[in-house]
Amino acid sequence: MLEYVRCNLCGADNTEPVAEIEGFHIVRCRQCGLIYVNPRYREDFLQQLYTAEYYDHDGIRNGQAFFGYEDYIADEENIRITFAKRLRTIERFVNKGRLLDVGCATGFFLDLARAKGWEVVGSEVSEFAAQYAREKFGLEVHLGALRQLHFAPEAFDAVTMWDVIEHVADPMGDLQEVWRILREGGLLSLITPDSDSLVARLLGKRWEELRRVREHIYFFSRRTITEMLRRAGFEVLRIESADKVFYLGPAMERLKYYTWDGVLTKTATHLVYKLGLDRIRININPFTKIAVYARKRTETSL
Ligand SMILES: [Zn+2]
């Protein structure tokens, strides 16, 4: 079930330990700085993690395990607001056309982009999520990992890959595949946790993204993701921290993993619910995720 891998960015096999979480070893490549789990679950096993339970998991609420989403579907409106903002940024870099959302989950983004005039296609390894997207929104969603789906070359004007690359077995292979299926000058929008962020540095082993060792097997910094994109044939146009819309209640509950004073956090959270403020919508940028907009580079565009 486990496999030992070399560095996905530079190919070296020369690492130093970063942390050990739930028996998994997180290491840093001494050559290029990429952080990854090694050894880790094999690809076929990784793809089986994303069941219906993954999208509605009790672990975080109970403080037991960092895995999946508390209730992804119930959070649809907030997710759509976040996604709509990202789409507006994408449209500043590329004209509307054909868009592929890699790891499209339940299809909220595809549904939204289609309504804005894009022709949309999704790919998803979760059978539950793919089925939901097809039935609920009538979307074209292909079941499987990106490289298994064999899309036609230069088939898309834009590819989105949000909170996906840290989960896949071969990030470089996937970026090369995105390059192949994007048209010349096409845009890739990618979001992934930032292992170099202040929160990550302060929390160390307590950082939520790091504690998701079963599903997160790669941890990027701005430097390592930029280098991987460059090697895969992309030019980074813009790199920033991703923000996200939350309800105040669940955001407060999450705070307990980010603060040292548990009692104060608990009291404040309790107060928020008591005053009925928990459903207030807030936009947070915790600077824990990298958002990259990159263009496919070709011989002629150099
Ligand atoms: Zn390396």
Structural class: alpha/beta
The CATH architecture classification of the largest domain is: 3-Layer(aba) Sandwich
Distance between the termini: 43 Å
Helix content: 25-40%
Tell me the series of helices and strands, N- to C-terminal: EEEEEHHHEHEHEHEHEHHEHEEHHEE
CATH topology of the largest domain: Rossmann fold
Mean pLDDT: 89
What is the molecular shape?
globular
CATH class of the largest domain: Alpha Beta
Unreliable stretches (pLDDT < 50, length at least 5) are none
Radius of gyration: 19 Å
CATH homologous superfamily title of the largest domain: Vaccinia Virus protein VP39
Number of helices: 12
Count every beta strand, where a strand is a DSSP E run of 2 or more residues: 15
Strand content of the residues, in percent? 25-35%
Q: What oligomeric state do the depicted chains represent?
A: single chain
Name the bound molecules: zinc ion
Summarize the structure.
This protein is of the alpha/beta class. The chain has helices spanning 43-46, 59-62, 76-93, 108-115, 127-137, 146-149, 171-181, 198-203, 208-211, 222-231, 248-255, 262-274, and strands spanning 2-3, 15-21, 24-29, 35-37, 40-41, 98-102, 119-124, 141-143, 156-162, 182-193, 218-219, 234-241, 244-247, 281-284, 289-296. It has a seven-stranded mixed beta sheet, sandwiched between helices. A four-stranded antiparallel beta sheet has the order 2-3-4-11, with no helix packed on it. A two-stranded antiparallel sheet has the order 1-5.
